[in-house]
Amino acid sequence: MKEMEIARFTSVGGLLTSLTVLLQSAPVFLPVVGLALSPLSTLPIALAAVFDISLGITVLFSSALILIMVSPQEAIILLFTTGILGAVMGTLLYRKGIIVSILSSAIILSSGMIILTYIVGVPGFGDLADTLSLPFTLLTFFIFSLIYVSIWNICFRKFANYLIKIRLISTD
Q: What is the mean pLDDT of residues 104-122?
C-alpha cells in the first residue's frame, strides 16, 4: 500500500468508525431518539466495505472496541446485528449483486439475532422467543431479517449510487 493510500485508509476509517460509534451508542445517551438512530450504524460500515473489504472489517472491529468502553451491550449488538449486516451488505452488494447480498445479509442477521437471543441472552424481540415455539421463532426472525435487509439493500444501493455519481466513492 502506498503512503497516500495508507493515509486515506486511516482517515476514512477513523471518520466512519466515529460515526458508527456515535450512532450505535445513541440509545445510551438519547434513550428515545437513540433507538431510531442506532440501526443507522449499519451505514458507515457498509460504506467502508464498499470502499474496501478490509476497511469495512476494520471499522466494524474498531467500533466494537470503542463501544466496549461506552456500553458493552451495544458493542455486542453491533458485532452480531447492525455491524455484521453492514459488512456483509457492503461487501456483497456491488461484488455479487443485490439478490446474493439480500439472502446472505438475511442469513447473517437472523443468525446474529438467534445468537443474541438464545446464547448471549439479549432479547431480540422481547418476549416473542419465550411465547412462540422455537421453529416459529426462527422463521419469524428470518422473515423479519429478509424484509429488513431488503429495505436496507435497496436504500443503500440508491445512496451508494448517488455517492458514486458525484464521485465521492468508487467501486473499482
A: 92
Task: Tell me how far CA of residue 53 lies from CA of 17, 20, 25, 58, 125, in angstroms.
Answer: 14, 16, 24, 9, 31
Q: Which domain holds residue 17?
A: 3-165
- The pLDDT tens digits of the residues spanning 133-172 come to 889 989 999 999 999 999 999 999 999 999 888 887 776 6
Q: Answer whether 113's CB lies under 8 Å from 105's CB.
A: no
Q: What's the predicted TM-score (pTM) here? A: 0.91
Q: Which residues of 11-27 are buried (b: 16+ CB within 10 A; e: fewer)?
A: ebbeebbebbbbbbbbb
The CATH number of the domain holding residue 131 is 1.10.1760
Q: Which three cell numbers stand for residue 60?
A: 466494524
